[in-house]
Amino acid sequence: MVSHDPGTNPGPAGQVGEHVGGTATTPPARRLLDAAAGPLHPTARDTLVAAVDAGWADPARLHSEGRRARALLDRSREVVAAGLGVRPGEVSFLPSGPAAISRAVEGMLHAARRRGARTVASAVEHSAVLVPARARASSVDDPTLLAEVPVDALGRVDLDAWAAAVAEPGTVVAALQSANGEVGTRQPVTDAYEACRRAGVPLVVDASASLGRDDVPEHWDVLVGDARTWAGPPLGVLVVREGVRWHWSGARADVEHGRTDVVPWVPVALAAAEAWQQTQATRVPDAATTSRLVSRVRDAAAGVPDTQVVGDPVDRLPHVVTFSSLYVDGEVVVGALDAAGFAVASGSACTSSTLEPSHVLSAMGVLTHGNVRVTLPLPAVSPGVTADVDAFCAALAPTVAAVRASLGVGDL
After folding, report:
1. Mean pLDDT in the chain?
2. Which of 193, 210, 292, 316 gets the most CB atoms within 10 Å of its CB?
3. What proportion of the chain, given as a percentage, has pLDDT over 70?
4. How many helices (H) and strands (E) does the chain have?
C-alpha cells in the first residue's frame, strides 16, 4: 500500500515526484521506522472501509441500523476482551490511548476520594499520568500528593522505593508501565503489584506501548492499551477488573460502562478488533523478527562515536530502541535522516511535539542530547522492514558525521 501527501503527484513506481528549478527529481524511498502511531494493518484498513457502510449508526438507537451497529460494537469488544483474557464488560473503548491512561487514574482517585488523594507513579510514566498528577498537587500546594519513584540507568523502577512509596498513608492509586515506549525497558510489574497488594493500593498498568507486541500483563487492577500499538486506528482501551473500586466523576452509565462520555465510532472499534486478531496470529514470529532488527540497530548506533544506546539490551520490548549522540540536536539528526528517506522520531514518546528534552532519559540520568527513537512497524504493515533496517544501519554513522561536520563539531 502506497500513500502520498495530498496535492502531490505520484511519480514512477508510486513515488512522489517533485520539480525543483524545473527539473524532475525523485526523492529517496520512504522507510518507516517510527511506527509508534503508524499505518493501519492492511486487513484492518479494509475492515474500517467496509464498516463505514455497515456500522455507521449510533449503537444506542433502537432501529435496525442502530441494533446492527450495537452488535458490531459488542463483537469488537468481545474480540479484544478474549485477547486480553478478561470479560467483555470489563472493557471500554475511549477516544485515544492517552485519554484512557488519564481516565484510568482519574477513576481510581475519584472512587477513593474520601480515603486520600495521593498518586504513586514511576518517573518515566506517560505524560498523561504525570502532568495531571503534578497539576493536582500544585493546585493545592501539596507536593506529597504525587510520588515520582526513581528509575535506574536502564529505566527500570526502583522496587524498594516503589514499595515504600505505595505504603505511605493517603496513597490511593499507583501507576506503572508494563514497558517504556521510548527505551523499551520492561518494568517489574509482578513485583510492583505485590507491593501494592500488601499496601492495599490498586495498580493501574499502562500497557499502551506493549499490547499486541509483547505478552499481556497478568497482574493489575486497571489496564490501559492503545490500538495504534498493534497497527489499529486511534482507540484507547480501558479495562477495569470486576470488583475494583473505580468511578469517574463525569460518568454516563449508558456509555462504555460509565467510563467515558464519548460513544465509540463503531468502524474504528471494528478495525481495532480486526488489527488485534491479525497481529496476535503472527505476534511470536513478528516479535522474534523485530527483536533481531532492534539488536542490529543497537549495534549500529553503538558503533557511532560518542553515541549512547539506552534501555535494557535484553529485557525489553521487541520493537523499540533509542540512542543519543553528543554534539548534535536530535531534531537536526531526525531531519537529516528524513531527507535520506528514514522516518524516525526524537524526544519523549509521549511529548515529542514539544521539542523538550525527554523526561524519560532525564529520569534515567543518561544523555538526552541528540536523541533518536526507532519504533519498528509490524512486518505485515511494512514487509520491507528488514531491508529498511539494513539501509538505516548503513546510513546512520555517515548521517551523524555529516550533521556534526555541518555544525563544525566533526573533529571534537
Report:
1. 91
2. 210
3. 91
4. 11, 15
| pLDDT the model gives residue 20 | 34
Residues 6+ apart with CB under 8 A from 33: 342, 343, 344, 374, 375, 376, 377, 388, 389, 392
Distances (CA, A) of 78 to 2, 74, 83, 369, 374: 32, 6, 9, 44, 32
Lookup result for grid cell 498498568: 205
Cβ burial 163-195 (10 Å sphere, 16+ → b, else e): bebbeeeebbbbbbbbbbbbbbbbbebeebbeb
Distances (CA, A) of 255 to 94, 104, 143, 250, 260: 10, 16, 34, 11, 6
Residues whose CB is less than 8 angstroms from the CB of residue 325 and which lie 6 or more positions away in sequence, other chains included: 304, 306, 307, 308, 333, 369, 370, 372, 400
At residue 196 the predicted structure's pLDDT band, cuts being 50, 70 and 90, is: very high
Report pLDDT for 143: 93
pLDDT of residue 19: 33
Q: Rounded CA gap, 172 and 161, in Å?
A: 17
Instruction: Kindly list the distances between the CA atom of residue 106 and the CA atoms of 142, 160, 172, 256, 390, in Å, as whole numbers in the listed order.
Output: 18, 26, 11, 16, 44
Displacement of CA 64 from its chain's centroid (Å):
37
Q: What is the pLDDT of residue 254?
A: 80
Burial class (CB in 10 A: 0-12, 13-18, 19+), 238: buried
Computed from CA positions of residues 371, 376, 381, 385, in that sequence, does the dihedral angle turn out positive or negative?
positive
- Strand, coil or helix: 329: coil
Contact 174, 166 (CB under 8 A): yes
Q: Can you give the pLDDT at residue 10?
A: 32
Q: Which residues contact 62 (CB under 8 A, 6 or more apart)?
A: none
d(CA 245, CA 115): 12
- For residue 263, is pLDDT > 50? yes
C-alpha closest to that of 388 among 308, 319, 331, 335: 319
What is the reported pLDDT for 22? 40
Closest CA to 205 of 234, 238, 156: 238
* Proportion of the chain above pLDDT 90, given as a percent: 84
